[in-house]
TrEMBL record, chain A:
Bias (Pro residues) ranges: 15-24
CDD domains in alphabetical order: bHLH_AtIBH1_like (cd11444)
Alphabetical UniProt keywords: DNA-binding, Nucleus, Transcription, Transcription regulation
Entry protein name: Putative HLH DNA-binding domain superfamily protein
Signal peptide: none
Biological process terms in GO annotation: regulation of DNA-templated transcription; response to brassinosteroid; unidimensional cell growth
Region ranges (Disordered): 1-44, 123-156
Molecular-function GO terms, alphabetical: DNA binding
Compartments reported by the entry: Nucleus
GO cellular component, one term: nucleus
UniProt feature, compositional bias: Low complexity: 131-140
Automatic annotation (TrEMBL), chain B:
Chain spans, region Disordered: 1-26
Entry similarity comment: Belongs to the bHLH protein family.
Gene Ontology MF term list: protein dimerization activity
Pfam families associated with the record: bHLH_ILI
InterPro entries: bHLH_dom, HLH_DNA-bd_sf, PRE
Descriptive protein name: Transcription factor ILI1
Record-level GO BP terms: regulation of DNA-templated transcription; regulation of growth
Record PROSITE patterns: BHLH
Extent of Basic residues compositional bias: 1-12
Annotated ranges, domain BHLH: 15-71
Keyword set includes 4Fe-4S: no
Function: Atypical and probable non DNA-binding bHLH transcription factor that acts as a positive regulator of cell elongation and plant development. Binds the transcription repressor IBH1 and forms a heterodimer of antagonistic bHLH transcription factors that function downstream of BZR1 to mediate brassinosteroid regulation of cell elongation and lamina inclination.
């Protein structure tokens, strides 16, 4: 499917549809079976490859050469977030960061913020989203103080809250669960990019 | 690196409204299970087995932070490499077939 058609995804990015209530992000045409869970399953890898390759094709045709490394890095994280479960806090944080950095219209961003807030309110709400709803800040929203440390929680948990997207203000158990899911998808993204680099490298022994 | 204790209070109370003993026991079981899950994801988990429970928790978190930072660095490096390769490479039929296999 992807080899034949080369349609630009600008229209899709201008008006991204709200994700369906079920956790399977079944948007691609070629993807028929929904991923069972947000784990390292083949269908999750397929969704990851689909989103990232589509972004790479768009970057290859539209982005000027000096800006490509940064744009590819951003596309890597947004592809990760799209391929994963939309109910995860780290995916919502990454997509919100992505939307804010692209300068999405106020109506769109407010709608997305409302959707994110409604979804996050089912579990523990991170203060970052609440702060973003009040005032529109820069790429890095003001991080409020971490919650009171739980009994037996190491001091290293604060460092983990800083490097996991959406981790600021998260409770310890949720932080551990989000971190495990984030590491899984981050590792899958690195493996995908490494396989693409091996594919495009000039000294390719298999092409001989 | 902030190693001091900061007991700042958030406006909203935690979602755990159960009794303290039940909440502690459930949380401890969940924490140990989540820490084991995290440790299984780390590449150096096989080399470091053993140690005290609290020390193990701090070490798992430290290794997780290092692992996430290394993965972030790899994404940065691979992004630069992919940008260079996209500028120079032309997609051949074999490469298109591999890309198609990635999507199928």
């Amino acid at each position: 499917m992807a080899g034949g058609k080369r349609t630009t995804a600008r229209h899709q990015h201008n008006h991204p549809p709200p994700p369906p209530p079920n956790p399977s992000p079944n948007r691609g045409r070629g993807v028929a079976d929904p991923p069972p869970a947000s784990d390292d399953s083949p269908s999750s890898k397929r969704m990851l490859a689909f989103h990232f390759l589509r972004a790479l094709a768009r970057i290859h045709s539209t982005t000027p050469a000096p800006r490509r490394p940064r744009t590819i890095r951003r596309a890597a994280y947004s592809s990760m977030a799209r391929a994963a479960s939309p109910r995860r806090a780290w995916t919502q944080a990454l997509l919100l960061r992505r939307a804010r950095s692209r300068g999405v219209a106020v109506v769109g961003s407010s709608r997305r913020a409302v959707l994110l807030r409604r979804r996050v309110s089912a579990s523990a709400p991170p203060p970052m989203l609440r702060a973003s709803a009040g005032a529109t800040s820069a790429a890095a929203p003001p991080v409020q103080g971490p919650p009171p440390r739980q009994a037996g929680e190491p001091a290293r948990a604060d460092a983990l809250r800083r490097i996991v997207p959406g981790g600021a203000g998260m409770e310890y158990c949720s932080l551990l669960d989000e971190t495990a899911d984030y590491v899984l998808h981050l590792r899958a993204q690195v493996q995908l990019m490494q396989s693409l680099v091996d594919l495009f490298s000039p000294p390719n022994p298999t092409s001989n | 690196m902030s190693s001091g204790r900061r007991s700042s209070r958030t406006r909203r109370a935690g979602s755990s409204s159960l009794s303290s003993s039940t909440s502690r026991s459930i949380s401890e079981d969940q924490i140990s299970e989540l820490l084991s899950k995290l440790q299984a994801l780390l590449p150096e988990s096989q080399a470091r087995n053993g140690g005290a429970h609290r020390g193990s928790a701090a070490r798992v978190l430290q290794d997780t932070c290092s692992y996430i930072r290394s993965l972030h660095q790899e994404v940065d490096n691979l992004s630069e490499t992919l940008a260079e390769l996209l500028a120079s490479a032309d997609v051949t039929s074999d490469q298109a077939a591999v890309i198609r296999s990635l999507l199928m």
